[in-house]
Design goal:
This protein is mainly beta and 114 residues long. The chain has one domain. It is 0% helix and 54% strand. It is built from no helices and 10 strands.
Length: 114
């Protein structure tokens, strides 16, 4: 499900909107200045000067692999962190969310991306 549309700027930032039933935010995804280690995020997700998440460069298992950003959004208004993915489309980048489905052991797994 597409929950946002973004444009990539020349400085490697993404600007756009996240729109759901409960969230409507203008968002910027900006590269991190310095990564403390290899597990640190490649990008920060910002809105109105506050950090709302982090993003990592990733690629699909397709042949050939398709690059995307694996993003974790977290905020006081969210009951739990939300995993989404930002994929390049024809004219925009699309923020994709997929519902987690429960496994047989009661744990949750993500269908599809992120």
């Amino acid at each position: 499900m597409i929950i946002g549309r973004f444009q990539r700027k020349a400085d490697d930032t993404f600007t756009g909107f996240i729109n759901t039933f409960t969230i409507s935010k203008r968002v910027r995804i900006v590269p991190t200045d310095e990564r403390a280690n290899t597990d640190a995020p490649d990008y920060r997700v910002l809105s109105r000067g506050c950090e709302y998440g982090a993003a990592w460069d990733a690629q699909t298992n397709d042949t050939p692999p398709r690059p995307y950003l694996s993003i974790v959004l977290d905020s006081p208004e969210l009951p739990t962190p939300v995993r989404v993915a930002l994929f390049e489309g024809e004219n925009d980048h699309y923020l994709i969310w997929r519902r987690r489905k429960e496994r047989g052991d009661g744990a949750q797994q993500v269908r599809g991306v992120a």
